Amino acid sequence: MTLVHTIGYESASLQGFLDTLRSAGVKLLVDVRAVASSRRPGFSKTRLAANLAEAGIDYVHLRALGTPADGRAAARAGRHDEMKAIFKEHLETPAAQDGLERLAALVRSEQPLVLLCFEHDPAHCHRSLVAEALTAIVPVRVRHLMAEVE
């Protein structure tokens, strides 16, 4: 059974984040944010991909597996159950199903990978729902990484 990691970068230092990925043996980061920009230095798509490349980690963005705007608003407001309901509905869309199939193909390549989103706590983040949906397609074991907090 393949191991799939998840991680959030909320409150993480860039160096601590990269160190956590390297320690886990990650070779591919799969960004599952709908909007791959960030106010946190080093975590926007282009800069993140460059930082990862310097660490020997590849980068893929699967935008279709990101949370829709109304789900992100619910998460920011602390309405996590509402965010989960919105995201589960989103997962039924053709675009999200295609994204899950693309993710499953990456998992089948047996390259150690991590799913990335913002929230530190995986229980409050849609990446846990992505990982759960993935298990219906390909057998995986999920491990939530916690980057060192600043």
Walk me through the structure:
The chain is of the alpha/beta class and 150 residues long. It has a single domain, classed as Protein-Tyrosine Phosphatase, Chain A, CATH 3.90.190. Helix 3 runs antiparallel to helix 4. The longest helix is centred in the C-terminal third of the chain and has 15 residues. The protein is globular and about 35 Å long. The termini are far apart.
Can you give keywords for this protein?
5-stranded parallel beta sheet, globular, Protein-Tyrosine Phosphatase, Chain A, 150 residues, alpha/beta
Cα(first) to Cα(last) distance is 33 Å
* Strand neighbour order, sheet with most strands: 3-2-4-1-5
**Could you say which structural class the secondary elements and strand pairing correspond to?**
alpha/beta
Our count of helices gives 6
Number of strands: 5
Largest sheet: 5 strands, parallel
Write the layout of secondary structure elements.
Elements: E1 2-8, H1 14-23, E2 28-31, H2 45-54, E3 58-61, H3 69-76, H4 80-90, H5 94-108, E4 113-117, H6 126-134, E5 140-144
Parallel strand pairs: 1-4, 1-5, 2-3, 2-4
Helix pairs in contact: 3-4
